[in-house]
Amino acid sequence: MSSEMTAYVIEEFGGPDAFTETTVEVPEPGPDEIRVSVAATSLNPVDYKIRRGDLPDFAPELPARLHCDVAGVVDAVGENVDRFEEGDQVYGMPGGAGRQGALADYVVGHAGTFAGAPESIPLEDAAALPVVALTAWEMLADKATVEVGDDVLVYGASGGVGHVGVQLADWFGAAVTATGSTEAKREFAAELGADATVDYTATDVETYVDEHAGGEGFDLVFDPVGDDHLRTAFEAVRPFGAVVTTESSSTQDLSAMHANSLELGVVLVILPVLLGEYRERIGEELDTIATLVDDGAVEPRVDERFGFDEAADAHRLGESGEFRGKLLLVNE
């Protein structure tokens, strides 16, 4: 094979047009790593936040190849790797934060950050899953316990994490209420399995708690949005209930947590990649998620597809928020 590959990099932090097509050396896998021929990646908020320079501690070394998600075919394996062999179809979250990512012909990552791709969907569509499905799974299965019949409120239900959260909460047997700012987003949430939807821009918390949580409050509030949503989550949850979030960096008054004996769970799904530790938990959870996909419990919903050379357009759309589910970038 050629010793060089095409990659899309940022030389410095900036807007969507910061991406440059270039040629770089094909990376070699280390003893515990695999190299994957990239079929596709997808866009997550962490990707454009890194690109903008909002998360300098998360950024790969410049010039940086971004994007955390990947699906593709194993091309080479390190000497200590026995989980995979050349030709395996895999998906994972090997880099893009802390180390070089998937916006290139090949990506190298620790074998523990990969799993066999779901068999029931196209390989490239599996790239829509890792960050959002891992996040939703950890929020609902790790940081909280969802029982059959629980009232669960899902914020941002049409977004990447939210659209998987609705499906998982429904699979756990919860009564799911989903929020959305437009009729189209609310219809999408209902299609995914939400039992009720709320226009949070026109309905106050007390009203939808009365209508959908018996006036007492939701057993669990699922918040992948943060900021004002985290504040309203403390209002919407019942006493002794739980709030799970991915965005706890805002300043909040936590007195409601004390007054109502609440639990707060926080998920930073890329932490094992940043730390270089606990990476096997990624692969183990991705194994579970692949089974859920193949069993029909979870389906990644792709709103729009882009080529790698259209990364700027994908980032612009992603930052606008005017889409549902995920945006996929395919290595054409």
What does this 3D model show about the protein?
- The structure is a single chain.
- Helix content is 30%, strand content 27%.
- The protein is an alpha/beta fold and 332 residues long.
- The protein folds into two domains: 4-130 and 277-330, Medium-chain alcohol dehydrogenases, catalytic domain (Quinone Oxidoreductase, Chain A, domain 1); 144-266, NAD(P)-binding Rossmann-like Domain (Rossmann fold, 3-Layer(aba) Sandwich).
- Strands 3, 5, 6, 7, 8, 15 and 16 form a seven-stranded mixed sheet that branches. It has a six-stranded parallel sheet with strand order 11-10-9-12-13-14, with helices on both faces.
- The two termini are 18 Å apart.
Helix content: 25-40%
Distance between the termini: 18 Å
Secondary structure: number of strands: 16
| CATH architecture heading of the largest domain | Alpha-Beta Complex
- Looking at the structure, the CATH topology of the largest domain is Quinone Oxidoreductase, Chain A, domain 1
Cα shape: globular
Per DSSP, what share of the residues sits in E-state strands of 2 or more residues?
25-35%
CATH first level of the largest domain: which class? Alpha Beta
Total number of helices: 11
